[in-house]
């Protein structure tokens, strides 16, 4: 049985004519409502998935801009320095928002969001920060040619880097502490 809204709509139109002639509780009207509900559900799921991936795409985009194409492979210390700069990228904006706020007033939503993001990234650094392996020259070349899409990240090799334990190989897409 077809589930896509376009297929259901087309099938009912061929069989019955214009859709205004449907009775409210007819089988065809119920099929149309189910197909519409499914399409909405699928769209919400796709939007949620896209929002979850966007933080990783923004991260890789930042590293693509920061690490030039002809750069030599980076050491672990250089990668940690790069991560710390990435985590602290919003500190000037946070300080500005705090200075603009009157004493005794609660922080605005933007300031709370920036602080929460910074805290989450600091926690991730303790457990293993997910980044491309900049110690390999082919990863730096592949990052330079990356177009900004999610599927293009599968060509890169990733690691989890921590201050204490160093680096550990990881997979794409990021899952837990892999």
Automatic annotation (TrEMBL):
Organism: Aspergillus nanangensis
Family as reported in the entry's similarity comment: Belongs to the TMA16 family.
Signal sequence bounds: none
Protein name per its UniProtKB record: Translation machinery-associated protein 16
Parts forming coiled coils: none
Ranges annotated as biased composition (Basic residues): 1-17
Pfam families assigned to the protein according to its UniProt record, in alphabetical order: Tma16 (PF11176)
One annotated Gene Ontology cellular component of this protein: nucleus
Stretch list, region Disordered: 1-46
């Amino acid at each position: 049985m077809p589930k896509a809204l376009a297929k259901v709509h087309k099938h009912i139109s061929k069989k019955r004519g214009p859709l205004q002639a449907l009775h409210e509780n007819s089988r065809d009207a119920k099929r149309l409502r189910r197909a519409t509900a499914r399409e909405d559900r699928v769209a919400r799921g796709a939007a949620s998935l896209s929002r979850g991936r966007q933080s990783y795409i923004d991260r890789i985009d930042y590293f693509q801009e920061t690490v030039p194409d002809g750069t030599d492979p980076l050491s672990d210390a250089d990668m940690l320095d790069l991560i710390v700069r990435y985590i602290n990228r919003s500190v000037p904006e946070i300080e500005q928002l705090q200075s603009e706020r009157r004493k005794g007033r609660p922080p605005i939503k933007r300031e709370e969001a920036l602080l929460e993001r910074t805290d989450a990234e600091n926690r991730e650094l303790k457990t293993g920060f997910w980044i491309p392996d900049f110690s390999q020259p082919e990863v730096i070349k592949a990052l330079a040619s990356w177009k900004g899409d999610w599927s293009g990240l599968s060509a890169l090799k990733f690691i989890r880097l921590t201050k204490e334990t160093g680096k550990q190989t990881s997979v794409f897409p990021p899952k837990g502490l892999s």
